[in-house]
Amino acid sequence: MLIPRRDLDFQLHEVLDCAALADHARHAAQDREVFDGVLDTAYRIAAERFAPFAAACDREEPRIVGGRAWTIPDTRAALAAYNDASFTAATFDFEDGGLQLPVVVAKACTAVFSSANVAFHSYAALTAGAADLLVSCGSPDQRLRFVRPMLAGRFTGTMCLSEPHAGSSLADISCRARPHDDGHYRLTGTKTWISGGDHDLAETIVHLVLAKLPGAPPGVRGISLFAVPRDRVRKDGSVGEPNDVRLAGLNHKMGWRGTTNAVLSFGERDDCRAEIVGEAHRGLEYMFRMMNAARIGVGTNAVALGYAAYGEALAYARERRQGRLPGSKDPGSPPVAILRHGDVRRMLLAQKCWVEGGLALVLYCARLADEELCASDAAERAGIHRFLELLTPIAKSWSSEYCLEANKLAIQVHGGYGYTRDFPVERLYRDNRLNHIHEGAHGIHGLDLLARKVVAEDGAALKDLVARMRGTIDSARRSASLAPFAEALEAAIVDATQTTAGIATALRDDPVLALANATLYLDSLGHVVVAWRWLVQAQVAERAHEAASGSERDFYAGKLSACRYFFRYELPRTGPALRLVRSLDDTALAIPDGGF
Ligand SMILES: Cc1cc2nc3c(=O)[nH]c(=O)nc-3n(C[C@H](O)[C@H](O)[C@H](O)COP(=O)(O)OP(=O)(O)OC[C@H]3O[C@@H](n4cnc5c(N)ncnc54)[C@H](O)[C@@H]3O)c2cc1C
After folding, report:
1. What does the alpha-carbon distance between residue 87 and residue 80 come to, in Å, rounded to a whole number?
2. pLDDT, tens digit, for every residue of 67-104?
3. Residues 347-355: what's their mean pLDDT?
4. Which is it for the CA torsion 563, 424, 159, 44, positive or negative?
5. Which of 320, 142, 339 is nearest to 237 (CA)?
6. Residues 208, 157: contact at Cβ < 8 Å?
């Protein structure tokens, strides 16, 4: 089930006022009509081309035949339709062959495509991410020979970071590149887990590979970035002979099975030509550009998968009849729809508040990315960038954690049927389980947030967040029905900031102890941020509710109920969790290894 258009319209126009982006030169001549048209096209292609084979590409994983990975036949027409409509190029500048659309509109489209078929959409999303990295860090020649064909759909792209022994710890990678007298580098080594690492969907694949040069400094400072096409790309842009990149195998996954996941062996014949991207030793810094955008993409995928499952659960709960309400004395009375049962309603409301809260957060982040692009001066741009960097691990990890919970409850609402392959909720659950792991595992983001993002520059980004949240609190206090939520948010902010200050001090004395509960901190700060986004949604809904009628009135009432649920059932969870973080609880560290 596709993510509902009504909520996307609510977020884009009523909450985030995307039409105002037209005030900036970058989006001049783009208005709501343009954005609506783009979304109409996304829904059409998602429904007609992506959704119909989502189950088939889950059943029939890509196979290796003749050293190449082959996908099922429907994939090529789907990717062609996507590229014909220029979705890969959506946010790129006109001069690079893009449509220069706002990131927030493109992310809304991502939610549509990923709710239809997340695995297949990955090929295109990775290509856009790799092309964006080359635009910002590559040479003019690389832009011409690689980016143009990627945006046109002739080439796809990947990100090659992970190695069999080095996933979270990229400092330990062993891929090597050495300069060659033909002007290229020769790259050797093995990468694993490479999404879209091989397939039959494009003329070639541009791998962006992290590797170390001879004499490079140790650790992450010694990593450089290379563009390594699977097949050589000539000066005129045509594709030539293979480039000594061997598909050594495919990983067989729990979900997301429509995307190939490859083990790639580079330079077995010592003839793998690589082109350095940007300056030597700055590879990880460059790669972070792709990863940060990808992480908001991962959050969006998590939301889309949770939302799709919530839609399935809601439809099922309206249809499925089972039992009678407590107190009903007549066994001959007809069974009620399970939607009538209090516990089912609670499960549905929990799903709603997580997925709609997550959607509000990821689209807010995308809107910030637009503000960064449109900023009038460097200082403004740097401030927005810093703030977005703080929110990025939350958008990725909170959404992956709680939208997966939504998938779990969607199965529960289906009862035993949810545990079969006859309903899509089990596939959606398996697909969403990945988001917790890739683009930095959940625990790594907790460390990144607590050890770096909230304490860097004397906590400047966190102060910015608090100021923005307090702006909402001030206005929400003027509404009798929202004022209690405003007070609850204020109390949670005080709790979170005091915890952060305590940890900042503890970090200097005993970092292992200070960070032992970093994941709890991430989950809690995530809850505070999502509570804020719910309060913003509720303010909009409250204003619109009065004048609305029929299904529109229900829509706004639903927003107000979900906000109330989040503040009553979810936000209070942060109190005990933050207490554990603040008190430097060492239970998990204290247990002896042999005691597990
Ligand atoms: C389906 C799929 C697609 C992927 N696609 C790509 C891709 O396209 N390109 C790519 O380069 N990679 C890709 N990856 C790899 C992915 O990014 C890694 O799996 C991830 O970074 C974790 O690395 P790892 O699997 O080696 O786990 P490890 O790093 O071994 O981690 C195992 C566990 O230990 C924890 N841990 C590790 N170190 C620490 C620490 N210092 N402190 C606290 N906890 C720690 C982790 O949080 C995790 O829970 C993909 C993975 C999967 C499963």
Report:
1. 10
2. 999 999 999 999 999 999 999 999 999 999 999 999 99
3. 98
4. negative
5. 142
6. yes
Specify whether the backbone of 193 is left (phi greater than 0), alpha (psi in -120 to 50) or beta: left
* Atom number in ligand 1 closest to CA 439: 17
Contacts for 186 with CB less than 8 Å, ≥ 6 apart = 177, 178, 180, 267, 270, 271, 272, 273, 274
Q: Which of 123, 169, 295, 444 to mutate to test the pocket of ligand 1 (most atoms within 8 A of CB)?
A: 444
Measured distance CA(508)–CA(504) in Å, rounded: 7
Radius of gyration of the chain (CA): 24
d(CA 3, CA 114): 9
Token digits for 36? 């609506």
User: Residue 269 CB: number of other CB atoms within 10 A?
Assistant: 9
Q: Which residues line ligand 1 (CB under 6 A)?
A: 158-162, 167-168, 193-195, 253, 256, 261, 434, 437-438, 440-441, 443-444, 447
Identity at 408, one-letter amino acid code: K
Pairing of the two strands 261-266 and 273-276: unpaired
Q: Which atom of ligand 1 is nearest to the CA of 253?
A: 1
Report yes or no on whether pTM surpasses 0.85: yes
DSSP H or E stretch at residue 223 = strand 223-229
| CA-nearest residue, atom 35 of ligand 1 | 443
Query: For 335, which DSSP code?
Result: P
For residue 513, what are its two tokens? Answer: 């102890």
In angstroms, what is the span from residue 264 Cα to ligand 1's centroid?
17
Pick the atom of ligand 1 nearest to 197's CA: 8
Query: What CA–CA distances, in Å, run from 93 to 26, 134, 486, 544, 573?
Result: 9, 13, 40, 36, 44
Nearest-atom index, ligand 1, CA of 191: 11
pLDDT at 227: 98
Nearest atom of ligand 1 to the alpha carbon of 251: 1
How many angstroms separate the alpha carbon of residue 443 from the centre of ligand 1? Answer: 10
Reduced to 3 states, what is the DSSP secondary structure of residue 262? strand
Give the other-Cβ count within 10 Å of 501's Cβ. Answer: 15
